[in-house]
Structures are given as structure tokens and as C-alpha cells.
Amino acid sequence: QREEKVVQDLIDAVSLAVVIIVCAVPEGLPLMISLVLMQNTSKMLDHNVLVRKAEGIETAGSLNILFSDKTGTITKGELEVVDFFTADGTSISANELRHHGKVKGLLDLAIGKNTQAMFDVYHKVIGGNATDQALLKFIGEETFCMLDGNDGCKVSAHQGFNSSNKFSQARIESIGKTFYKGAPERLLAKATKYLDGDGQIKEIDQKALNQKIDSLAAKAMRVAFGYSEKELVKNQINDDLVIIGLVAIRDDVRPSAKDAIRQVQEAGIQVVMITGDRLETAVAIAKDAGLLKNESDRALSSAQLNQMSDEEVKAILPQIRVIARALPTDKSRMVRLCQEMNLVVGMTGDGVNDSPALKRADVGFAMGSGTEAAKEAGEIVILDDNFKSIKDAILYGRTIYHNILKFCKFQLVINVTAVVVSAIAPFFGVEEPLKVTHLLFVNLVMDGLGAIMLGNEPALEKYMDEKPRRRDESIISKQMMGQILTMGLWLTVVSFVYLKAPFFKNLFENEEQHLTGYFVLFIVSALFNGFNVRDDGAEIFKGLDLNPGFLKVFFAIILVQAVIVNAGLIPFVVFDWIGEMFSCVPFGIKGWIAAILLAVTMIPVDLIRKAIVNKKH
After folding, report:
1. pLDDT for 523-553, tens place per residue?
2. How many helices (H) and strands (E) does the chain have?
3. What value does the mean pLDDT take over residues 439-452?
4. What is the bridge-based pairing of β-strands 345-349 and 117-119?
């Protein structure tokens, strides 16, 4: 009969343990992921990242290759003057220009009185084209308003820019000058003289000027300014034209995007800029952004790409950094080829035509300024269109993955121990060291409350130093399995030392108190193991101020357990019922101290394990 009872106890224990594993792990992980996403949503919104589909943000941390738009994402999305130079090739900065009175005065008139743009009441530039707006911002609102309010500078005749003339002109009769603004090749074809920085008229040195223009050829478009003493003649540039100077205008790279691109590349993610610009302009932007660094890096146009077969593109794919004159079909093709190579691919887009590529990509990053169709197709919306926000989305994706791993380690250590202890305890003469209600409480601690403890762990920049994970990579690595088995084994040893050693038995008045103490030991050991899983090294207490919920839940669970254990001492009927339900009875302070001290050993044992493992690596 005794043997039959032991066998039956073993069957019951193993069955209960299987129920724990079956219920806790599959149900606990989705709950954990939901809680992690919920807790990080507000943080990601602070970084201008809106997660539309939950799986998108975690997948973002696994990207191997990212195709990014240029305009507004890598660049600022607006034209601006990046250089002013005289016709001898001498650059003058915006701050220095104020010291060149004659040149600045004539330049202000050539821009401010020869434009379709203006400042509105909100101090923003409106009207005209993007070039007009960039030039008006260059001279500034104060200068524009001063010119606009000067009755002595009224325009008596004007001809706007058109594509055939490639210049505009304005006559100011009161000062006897006609001002020109237009393409350098049109103005320079007529001019033989220019103003130097001191305002002196000199003969143009075509060689020096051409060298300067050639250096800017791929990086920016140019606009030239000049004046004539003669009357305005429609569709014609007067032959006494004097060049005031030239400006280089471009959509410059965002400083934050350049740094973000570097961090994403260091994270092992290949970044490819995909743009509708011509190849020369795209190459210049890519060099400034840090995408083109080595001679092996490739920049292709859509036409070149379409001349290649799929296999040829796959062969050079690791070297591709720029795709210029890109079509929406190029985006879809690149996503397909990358996925055929088993790469996790991210794609940005803002237009209706980008929707197929966004939907097909593993992670579609829709731009906040884009169409609703693009946002519906993408998993993540980048509200400010900035590449830096894409980098932040990748960081949070990796953070969420790490927090899921922490949760798995936290949960599986205690589950492994529960299975082993429940299975072999009857052979050591201990019947039901953990009751059914104890295991249900453990499950509660491991799932919901454990997710709250670990789901809000802070995003660490060191996650960006890791290489992307493979698609087929197991969530449980060898190192993770080593931690689970080691700490599970240690807690099993501690459990049986506590349950069988006379020293610990003598701290309690009876067996019921002794087993209640084990319930406390089991739960508190799990909580201390929560510190262990926070870091793969020794910094297990670092950053607790960034996750205040960890300690709140930690002490809340201990407080609730103290109430459960001491329910019999509380003078309310309901607490008597709680004590009976959990099969718990109050015990003395010595028992609490012993249980907590044994539980604390979880930390030094794991630190020793980490030191040994990290030393090997």
C-alpha cells in the first residue's frame, strides 16, 4: 500500500507539473509580449514611433537590411543655401557676408525683389517654388521686410522664371539697375565681369569659377545672381551683366540621421538609400550620410538594376548602398530578393505606390507625412519621418526581445524547479511540498507580475552593438539554457536542504509551519532570481531607477505573501479562509530569516556562474 501511495503521489506530482508547464509557458509568453508592448508604447511615442502591428516592433530588432527613403528621412526634406561664393570661387559664409556691404546689399535686392515667395504672419516662407523659399530664408525675414517697406526699392518691371529662359529679372528704376536670378550657365554666358568680396568689379576668371562649380556639380544645384545698368528686356539678359555671386542649394543631410545611420550599421544592419534623385546627387548625399565609405560600396540607378538578373543582383546585394531613380517596382523587387536570401528586410515608404513593398517587407516603416494607404500597409509609422526614429524603433525592438528572454529565464527557472521538486519529493518522504494553490500563486507571480517586473526594463544602447538574429535562431540559446538549468538545479538543492536538514526543521514548531516556510522560500527565491536575469554580467542592480515597477512588484509580492502566511493572525473571518485556502500557518521570525537567507543565495551562485561563462568567452 505504501508503494502504491508513493507511485500515485509521483503521478499526481508529475501531472501537476506538466499542467504548470503547459499553462504557464504558452499563455504567459503572449501575456508578457502584450504587457511589454503596452508598457513601451508611450516610450516609443516619445521617440515619434507609432506601432500599428505588435509583431512589427519586435521584428524591427532583427533586421538584416533596411531600405530607406532619402528626402525628409535621411535629409531634412527642404532646400537650403549651403554656400555663397563670388565668381572667383571664394566662399563667404552667411555670418561673414554682413561685412561685405556692397555685395550683400546687391544680393539682398537680387533675391528679395526678384521672387514669388514671401513671409507670412507666422514668420514662415510661403509662395514661390522650393528654390525661392530657400533663397528667401537665406537673406532672412528682417532683410526682406526692410526691402518690402522701402519705397525707394519698388520694382518697376518684372519677368518671372520660366523653364525656357531659366532666369527671372526685376527692374528697380530708382537705383537704375536690373537684377537677374537664374541658372549659372545662362548668366555666365553673358557676363564678363563680377564683384569680388570687397565689391570691386573685376574680370571673371573662368578657370577658377569652373573648378568651384565642378566641385559642387554632384552635391548641389546652383543659382547665379547679377545686375545690369540697362533697362529690362523681356526674355533677354543684358550684355553689361555683372555677376554678384552664386549660391549652392541642396536638401542637406540631417545631423541626427548621419549619427543614426552609423549606429544602425554598427548594429550589423545594411542600410540602402533608395531615392528618385539622379545618381550623382544620390551618391553625394550618401557620402555625406556615411553610406558610401569604401570603393567596394555600390551605387546603382534603377536602369542599371533592371538590366541585371535576379541572381546578378543577389551576388552584389551585400555591396549595394544606393539605388537612384528608383521606381515603386524596384522596392518590391528588392524586398523579394532579400527574403529569398533569408534576410529580414525593412522598407520605408510614404506613397500609395509604396504600399505593396511596405506590406511585403518583414517590417514596413510608413512615414507620418505619407498617405493613409502607406500607413495601413506598414507595421510602424515614423511620425517625424526621421531616420533617427527608425533607429529608435530598432533599439526598442531589440529591447523588447531581450525583455522577453529575461521573462523566459525568470519563468523557466522556477518551472523547472517546480517540476523536479514535485516529482522527486515523495521519494524523500516529503508529500506535496507545494500545494495546488501554491503553484497557482507561483503561476500568477511568474506570468502577469513577472511581466510587469521585467517588461519595462530600459532600452540599453549596448543592444545596438549586437548582430541581427537569424530567422531560424532558437529563442533559447546555450547560454540561456545553462542559466536555466544551473539555477533550477541550485534551487532544487536548496529546496531539499531546507526540507530535509534537521537545522531548518528545528526552526519551526511543526511540519505545517515548515512547509509554509518552504512556500515562502520558493517565491522569494524566484524574486531574487529576477535580479539575475536583468543582466548577463554583474550589473544586475544597474538601472533600477529606470524601471521603478521592478522593486514595487518585488516588495508587493513579498507583502502579499506575508499576508497569506499570517492570515490566521488577522482578526477577520475572510483572512482565516485565505490561510486555509493556501494551507499556510504563521511562523516565527527565525523561519522568515532562514527562508530569505537561503533565497538570497540565488544571486551569488548565478554571479559565480556568469563569471565562469564570461571568462571562457
Report:
1. 999 999 999 999 999 999 998 998 888 999 9
2. 25, 18
3. 77
4. unpaired
Tell me if 134 sits within 8 A of 159, measured CB to CB. no
What DSSP string runs through 575-604?
Answer: HHHHHHHTT-----HHHHHHHHHHHHTHHH
| DSSP annotation string for 114-134 | S-SEEE-TTS-EEES-HHHHH
Q: How far apart are CA 85 and CA 81, in angstroms?
A: 11
* Mutual angle of helices 548-565 and 511-532, in 10-degree steps: 180
Per-residue pLDDT averaged across 414-434, rounded?
Answer: 85
Residues that are catalytic: 69
Distance CA 476, CA 478 (A): 7
Q: Residue type at 178?
A: T
Name the average pLDDT for the chain.
Answer: 87
Q: Which residues contact 122 (CB under 8 A, 6 or more apart)?
A: none
pLDDT-derived band of residue 21, with 50, 70 and 90 as boundaries? very low
Q: Which residues contact 546 (CB under 8 A, 6 or more apart)?
A: 458
In this model, does residue 311 exceed pLDDT 90?
yes
CB 44 within 8 Å of CB 459: no
Place of cell 485556502: 581
Cell numbers placing 511: 511540519
Which of 566 and 597 is assigned the larger pLDDT? Answer: 597
Task: Indicate whether this model's pTM tops 0.85.
Answer: no
Q: CA 377, 52, 68: angle at the middle one, nearest 5?
A: 55
Cα–Cα distance list, 420 to 18, 425, 605 (Å): 11, 8, 19
pLDDT of 574 above 70:
no
- 116 within 8 A of 91, measured Cβ to Cβ: no
Residue 6 banded pLDDT, cuts 50, 70, 90: low
Euclidean distance between CA atoms 54 and 52, whole angstroms: 7
Cβ proximity of 569 and 586 under 8 Å: yes
Q: Nearest Cα to 78, choosing from 251, 270, 212?
A: 251
Cβ distance 221 to 180 under 8 Å? Answer: no
22 pLDDT more than 90: no
